[in-house]
From TrEMBL, chain A:
Membrane topology qualifier: Multi-pass membrane protein
Protein name, as recorded: Spermidine/putrescine transport system permease protein
SUPFAM superfamilies: MetI-like
PANTHER family: PUTRESCINE TRANSPORT SYSTEM PERMEASE PROTEIN POTI (PTHR43848:SF2)
Chain ranges of the ABC transmembrane type-1 domain: 89-276
UniProt keyword Cell membrane present: yes
Keyword vocabulary terms for this entry: Cell membrane, Membrane, Transmembrane, Transmembrane helix, Transport
Keyword Ubl conjugation on entry: no
Higher taxonomy: Bacteria, Bacillati, Actinomycetota, Actinomycetes, Streptosporangiales
UniProt feature, compositional bias: Low complexity: 1-21
Transmembrane segments: 36-57, 93-115, 127-149, 155-176, 202-226, 260-279
Cellular compartment(s): Cell membrane
Family: Belongs to the binding-protein-dependent transport system permease family. CysTW subfamily.
Region (Disordered): 1-24
From TrEMBL, chain B:
PANTHER family: INNER MEMBRANE ABC TRANSPORTER PERMEASE PROTEIN YDCU-RELATED, INNER MEMBRANE ABC TRANSPORTER PERMEASE PROTEIN YDCU-RELATED-RELATED
Organism, as annotated: Streptosporangium brasiliense
Gene3D superfamilies, sorted: MetI-like
Transmembrane regions listed in the UniProt entry: 7-27, 66-86, 98-121, 141-170, 191-213, 250-269
Protein name listed in UniProt: Spermidine/putrescine transport system permease protein
UniProtKB keywords: Cell membrane, Membrane, Transmembrane, Transmembrane helix, Transport
Record family assignment: Belongs to the binding-protein-dependent transport system permease family. CysTW subfamily.
ABC transmembrane type-1 domain ranges (all copies): 62-268
Membrane topology: Multi-pass membrane protein
Amino acid sequence: MSTTGLGAAAPAAAQETAPAGRGRSRTRIGDRLLKVYVWLIIAWLFLPIAVMIVFGFNDTKSKSNVTWQGFTLNWWGRLGEYPELTRAVVNSLQIAVLSTLITTVIGTLMGLALGRYRFRGQGATNLVMFAAIASPELVMGASLLSLFISSGVQTGFVTVVIAHVLFSLSFVAITVRARVIGLDRSIEEAARDLGASTWVTFWRVTFPMILPGVVAGALLAFALSIDDFVITQFTSGALQTFPLWIWGATRIGVPPQVNIIGTLIFAVGVAIAVFNTVLSRRRT
Amino acid sequence: MKRLAPYLLILPGGLWLAIFLVVPMVFMASVSTQEGDVVNGFVQTFNFSVYGDALAQYQTQFLRSAGYGLTATVISVVLAYPMAYWIAFKGGPRKSTYLLLVLLPFFVSFVLRTVSWKFLLADDGMLLAPLKSAGLVSGDFHVLQTTVAVIGGLVYNYLPFMILPIYVALERVDPRVVEAAQDLYAARREAFTKVVLPLSLPGVFAGVLMTFVPMTADYVNAGILGGPENTMIGNIIQTEYLVNNDYPTAAALSFTLMAAMLIGIFAYAKALGTENVLEAAAR
């Protein structure tokens, strides 16, 4: 019958008289199969990551790094062999840091406004934010490029930062808004009753309470920025970022250094995720 | 002052969204009705024929993108639902660990992950080479540059955006409601189809919205894993904008794509009841 385990049905009467009977055990088999399925999907999700990490150690002779030819640490020592690749990685990091800073500040302000106040235009703001999240990056990139072409703006570092702030802004605002809505306002009122000014109340009471939301939003903005390809390709002009460099290199063969840089970025991401999990566990 | 506070707070972000999201759409509309070329410049001529021409010329790619997007979305729902179900109801204290495992691969660049698939699926790559030397598949069998590779890549790259919303919806289902159904003599299957499934549909809705749109507009998967037979409309727009510099055609194609998607989203929302779209939008 059901191998999905979603509904290994047994007649209701049988279930009542014999709770440990056939229905139960069949359910357990279904659950076990589902668990195997979950792990298979996880393995599938990790497969290309494993390939990326392993092929950073591949002793490849040609430019195409496809078949396994033995273990080497050679490429780790020659990480900076392609100056344009190094430059692209540095560009990615600079863009991510700058756009994260801008996004976090203005996104937090938006989140505060949306979570705390009811005001005219709130619905319109929500709608535009929804549009920013739901519209395909291709259309966003294409329309931004149309704006820059029409107004004669040279595309490059600045236009990429503008675009990155644009697509991560709503995510930060929503993350902060969720935190603001969950706040206990009586703590702020207590601070004010004890004579704290609006400014002091914000920095000493409100801000520390919304900080986890702000940090989560900032991490999200950074991750979105460093990974972005589509909008970046449309708004970058001659500027290269890490994903753009890989895209360009696919035609001529991706060198193992790309795998190593990808591995390093992955390691940092995992470290941040683990750190974040441990931190949030300690807090609760 | 106090009444102005929300407006002052929203101002920088609101301006950013207005100037760089709303205004560019107007400029794209304008570009789409211009004539000219990169060397001699473009002139606004309100030439709408470019829409008809572009649509006629790239009809195949439009239809192909819709087909790929739909197929990949359906596969994603089928793959994601049981997974989200198991994590939500049987994940126990390790729920967040499973979710983290789903998300971790996405700390690696989108493009780089897709390139890794290209290596894996290459004719002499790790998956096909052993099969070929064992004689299980013929020597000229290949996966790269086929529809299967592109749709597989799409499903792979967007699956978490389907798993997460379905998980969130299932997680909100109170187990006591399921127990109540069973107390009222619903069999497990009935409790699922009549209680759990309907309660999780908003999550499926959000997941479809979050995957169908970007999948259909994607050009990275078709660009890296597909061949000339699998180009999607995104590839055409990208080439027209960035390689051929035919801005009017590219803008017209982008607009048509966006319009088609909006119509699709609203039709889909209507079919499911508008309540759901508001709920998904509010989230």
